[in-house]
Specification:
- By secondary structure, the chain is an alpha+beta fold.
- It has two domains: 204 residues, Multidrug efflux transporter AcrB transmembrane fold (Up-down Bundle); 73 residues, Alpha-Beta Plaits.
- It has nine helices and six strands.
- It has a four-stranded antiparallel sheet with strand order 3-4-2-5. A two-stranded parallel ribbon has the order 1-6.
- Strand 3 and strand 4 form a beta hairpin.
- The longest helix is centred in the C-terminal third of the chain and has 34 residues.
Amino acid sequence: MINFLRYKIIYLLISASIILSGFFFIFKHGFHFSIDFTGGTNLKYKVNKTINKAVIKNILNKEKIKYSELSIENKNINIKSVPINEKQELSVRKKIESTGKVKIDLLLFESVGPAVGRDTVNKTIIAAILGIIAILGYISFAFKGFNFALSAILALIHDLLILVGTYSMISYFLKAEVDTLFVTAVLTTMSFSVHDTIVIFDKIREYIKIEGRKNIEYNANKALTETMVRSLNNSMTIVFMLLSLILLGGSTIRFFIVALLIGTITGTYSSPFVATPLLVWLEKRKKT
């Protein structure tokens, strides 16, 4: 049997350093939010020859369209602006064609109003809270102990903090956007984190029934020793699949897959090295 809990201070320092680094980036640089949350219009055009960015800027200013982003890459024009309608988009496209003497193909035109963006934020927060409450209730009922549920929820919050903080770093360095796919990754991380934790907690509960609660640390180490290989094998199959998707998948889902990868690795780490030490600490406190 391996004494995993002997190094709980190291696990605490690792988690604290990553979470604090994430907080620094969140408060210093924040996130790049997609129009799903902020509202606005995304335009993407394909032109048959290069065009000067100043020409497009001049047209947008004449049309009185405020924009937050304008870039030209590989003859692709990307514009992020305030919400506009189809008539305004058509006017902009025709003026770019006539002024820049280019032929344009419309690749993307999506527009989201500010009210829809606020509604998305509210639904995201509600979904996360309901998920946490449901998990808390289920584990409390299934394991007949509030400490099991509290440990799992605290480990889940730990995973979310690491995912959000790390994504802020990616957002700063690689311009990744927080969109509805990121929300999906967050909710998936919540389920994966608890899934691995329940497997370990079930083993701990099994040993408690046999040997009692006198030596909870011994029971926890024994459970971790028996489940560690299974957890790693299970997680590595997911990690390899996600890595191949990052390398071979399209750019539209790349950061979504990156977020899932971070969540998978964090969930695999937190179940034995965060949730279990927390459970042992809470159970010891209950005895005193």
